[in-house]
Amino acid sequence: MLLHKFAKLGPEGALTGALAAVDIALWDLKGKFFNQPIYKLLGGAWRTRLPFYASIGGNGERSVDEVLHVVETRLNDKPAAVKIRFDNDRTKPDLDIPGDIAKARAVRRMVGDGFPLAFDANNGYSVGGAIRVGRALEELGYWWFEEPVQHYHVKAMGEVANKLDITVSAGEQTYTLSGVADLIAAGVRMVQPDIVKMGGITGLMRCIALAHAHGVELVPHQTQPMIGDVANLHVVASQLHATKPCEFNDPSPRQHAVFANPPKPVDGLFHLPLEPGLGLRIDEAELAKRRVPVT
Questions:
Q1: Which residues contact 88 (CB under 8 A, 6 or more apart)?
Q2: Domain ranges across the chain
């Protein structure tokens, strides 16, 4: 209802992000009212211990040795897979294709042939550049190739997906259900909407149904700490056709101090909270330290 009420603000971006905050808060309240964790309100969990992949950003500016060092460090968390993100300047497509491929090759050499790897271009290539990189990733046995071209060029994203054998994914910058449908229609076979952009838990559940109806993988994007991360875990736990691990971003201290039980992986797994709602407990003393009086 609120999406339509405020549609003239624009159905994408700030509006759906704001609605996501409201939606997640309401699900949390509902869980507390019924004394149930959110995943039970969604129909129950198919799994209560969730593997994750280490999502490692900033590799465009790193040297090969620096990339290997940060990947080696994140392997200490025992992830089920690793995704290397490049975060290059989007105004300079195809800036260093040989260097990007060299980093992808070095990571594969370090982790071995059998370890699952993914490559996130962060919209850094032209169509031709993406196909060139994609072919190299296919030879290296990478699991998927994320957002190779600009996210708003849906037809181009589909063109790359249709010309490569590696799974091409997109959707973290898609804010509406119809936008996800457009990606699927273009030929993208793995969609990655984000719970804090896609209208929250309700929006992401709709995307799961859409993807299932079209036989497409849905692997949620999620790089925001704490609330977004935990809300995403509840949804993924209830997702029957979950084909990939959950995303776990570079460790961040943001928000952690004000929660008594921030989610942390144990032996390569996130364990679902059993407490009502999201299952997060606020540390009131720490929160009080950070309050800013409004006059």
A1: 60, 95, 96, 121, 122, 124
A2: 11-287
